[in-house]
Write a structure and sequence with these properties.
The protein is mainly beta. The chain is 10% helix and 36% strand. It has one helix and 18 strands. The strands form five sheets. Strands 3, 4, 6, 8, 9, 10, 13, 14 and 17 form a nine-stranded antiparallel sheet that branches. A three-stranded antiparallel sheet has the order 7-11-12, with no helix packed on it. A hairpin with a 6-residue loop joins strand 11 and strand 12. It is globular. It starts with a helix and ends with a strand.
Length: 204
């Protein structure tokens, strides 16, 4: 009986190095997040009843009422929207509204695409019952809402861009863009788009 116990013990010890060299796969469960619905929070002033949303990561305006889950602190910081786009860990969560300058800043107003990304690279001034404002250079609270073509099946009746103020540049080096690309396959004449602010409504 004693020899059987020794043999079994030796076999188990011999198996240990193999077990240690091939660790068992560990599951990485997605974290549970408590979310708070913030209905109809960010409204286009020039298009009452249209609110900030996401169309596969592109910032759009959608006819409300909406039941959205935003993440922000009053003051200056990132603006997150639940389920709006990619996340850092691939789990369900917040994506962050970022402004991406189109071309170079110049004497004429220029524009930035607005997308929802996994990491926040843009900070916003967020004050309830005031207008949403991008901070940093250049700062702006002026947006442009461009209507999708008739018959478009893409989400959001309007694609939202940020309008940047003109800055001083050497004479003769400024050119004006006439069209904007949505980032999801559509383009717009700037002259047909609507200038707007994005007002932050109090929670109902």
């Amino acid at each position: 009986m004693k020899s059987q116990i020794i043999s079994l013990t030796s076999a188990l010890l011999a198996a240990v190095p193999f077990a240690a060299s091939a660790p068992a796969p560990t599951a990485s469960p997605c974290p549970l997040v408590d979310v708070v619905v913030f209905p109809d929070a960010f409204e286009a002033t020039a298009l009452p009843g249209y609110y900030l949303e996401s169309a596969k990561g592109v910032a759009v305006l959608v006819k409300g009422p909406l039941e959205n889950t935003f993440s922000f602190d009053e003051g200056t910081g990132p603006l997150g929207l639940w389920g709006a786009g990619p996340t850092v860990d691939g789990c369900a969560g917040y994506s962050y509204l970022n402004a991406h300058q189109i071309g170079q800043l110049q004497a004429n107003p220029t524009y930035s695409k607005l997308t929802y990304d996994a990491v926040a690279t843009t900070n916003w001034e967020i004050t309830i019952v005031a207008d949403l404002k991008k901070v940093g250079f250049p700062s702006s609270s002026d947006f442009l809402a461009c209507k999708r073509p008739t018959g478009s099946l893409k989400k959001g009746k309007y694609v939202l861009f940020l309008q940047n103020p003109g800055i001083m540049v050497p004479l003769g080096s400024s050119t004006s863009a006439t069209t904007l690309d949505s980032g999801d396959g559509e383009s717009f004449l700037i002259s047909k788009c609507i200038a707007t602010k994005t007002h932050i409504n109090p929670a109902a």
